[in-house]
Write a structure and sequence with these properties.
This protein has seven helices and six strands; from the N terminus they run H-H-H-H-H-H-E-E-H-E-E-E-E. The protein is of the alpha+beta class. It has one domain.
Length: about 220
């Protein structure tokens, strides 16, 4: 049973407005900057309730839930993204589906969040890795993605690509030169890493489209 404090529409929850920026580039640097101090006890409690309330019907439904989450902490930092000094306990929770121990919000978490949503929705075939590159060889490769399928990008720098750097999320739509991606660890309008929808160039300066994967292959 969720506490009334979580469900009640508080004024601070109506519109989150973070007053800090994690980065300035079009994609996330590696490693990230962000929260490395332990969150407060009440923040951990709220995060637990938010996670408990998350749907389990599909990875897309779960990511959409976090995308639209309005709850903020006392510093007006949203629970669906990275924090400036303390780590967001929701982000750290995602790494329980990987073999990586995160350094708070500073560890890239796009793959961790995808693995967590796969596990919560009962899908198999997750990589249990915090590396986006771990999804490059996943099953179900397709040239005709549908909404909710997995989309993988690789770093354009050969050395970074070889180390598994890139990005992974869920396919929403595409146009000739870009893909609309719903995912975690994407730059949001506040300038920090969060769940959001973002157009990512298929052949960008730092990321290049690698592959699409039919979600049905993970059933």
């Amino acid at each position: 049973m969720l506490g009334a404090a979580l469900l009640a529409p508080a004024a601070a929850e109506a519109k989150a407005f973070e007053k800090y920026r994690d980065f300035e580039s079009s994609i996330l640097p590696f490693p990230l900057v962000g929260g490395t101090r332990k969150p407060e006890r009440n923040e951990q409690s709220i995060a637990g309730r938010i996670i408990e309330r998350a749907p389990s019907s599909s990875p897309f439904a779960i990511m959409h839930y976090f995308e639209t989450l309005k709850r903020v902490n006392k510093d007006n930092e949203a629970y669906n993204g990275g924090w400036a000094s303390r780590w967001n306990p929701i982000i750290v929770q995602f790494f329980t589906e990987t073999q990586t121990k995160p350094e708070g919000d500073t560890t890239s978490w796009c793959a961790a969040s995808l693995n967590w949503t796969l596990a919560r929705s009962g899908h198999k075939g997750g990589t249990h890795s915090a590396s986006s590159g771990s999804f490059r060889d996943s099953p179900g490769k397709t040239r005709h993605p549908r909404r909710g399928d997995i989309v993988v990008f690789g770093a354009t720098d050969p050395a970074a690509f070889a180390q598994g750097h890139g990005h992974v999320g869920l396919f929403v739509a595409q146009r000739a030169n870009a893909v609309l991606v719903l995912g975690g660890n994407q730059k949001n309008p506040f300038g920090h890493h969060a769940f959001c929808r973002k157009w990512i160039d298929k052949n960008g300066a730092e990321l290049k489209l690698h592959s699409f994967h039919d979600m049905r292959a993970f059933a």
